[in-house]
Fold this sequence. Notes:
Oligomer: single chain
GO cellular component, one term: cytosolic large ribosomal subunit
Structural class: alpha+beta
Strand order of the largest sheet: 1-3-2-6-5-4
Domain Large ribosomal subunit protein bL25 beta: 98-171
Helix content: 10-25%
Number of domains: 3
Function: This is one of the proteins that binds to the 5S RNA in the ribosome where it forms part of the central protuberance.
Pfam family, one: Ribosomal_TL5_C
Strand content: 35-45%
GO molecular function: 5S rRNA binding; structural constituent of ribosome
Mean pLDDT: 85
Amino acid sequence: MELIAEKREKLGKASKSLKKKGLMPAVIFGKALESLSITVPQVEVEKAYNAGGETTLIDIKIGNQTEKVLFKEVQEDPLSGKIIHVGFYKPNLKELTEAQVPVEIIGEENNEFLKTGGAIVLILANEIAVEALPTDLPHAFEIDVSDMQIGDVVTAGQLKYDTSKVSLVDLEAGDMVIKLDKIEEQVEEEAPVSEEEALEKIEATEETTAEEGEEDEEGKEKKEKKEDK
């Protein structure tokens, strides 16, 4: 995966004109490395990020120079969601680096409980911190839920990755990553009634009962008069 970039000489307000040209500002940084401001095609950046995320090395070519970098600091427009600035991190390819690897759920369309709406996948870890050489970072942790039953869980120890090259930073083998949980039917609870509302309800009931009693008496009197005749 390669991006063609150019060095950016003018900073600040000048970067606003880049958008009209389909370009966006970015910077390359790393340990003991002087930051380098560049411009890159916005569309190509979107494609590279969507394809590789933050754990796939990409090549940035600047003239005759090529740098192997990782997406590190991605800023998106809050309205459009498009990437507007990127910080590319240049790691030491011979040193272990830490990265957040996303958890991706697959096979939902094949699970009978999910298809009928009787269950839900509870994701307890959307991303998992790992440590590995930059070239060994996994793209994602894929979990297939096709055959999972309600109550089944997947732990960190069940994830598929090369344990000889990648180590988990924060999770132990027994820590839960996802669970297939049953969707319970929600019972609507009656809203609590205040003392004032309760009194009004009682008074209204008493008035209704009294009116019904009066009507009964009137009906009884009419019947008696009719019988007397």
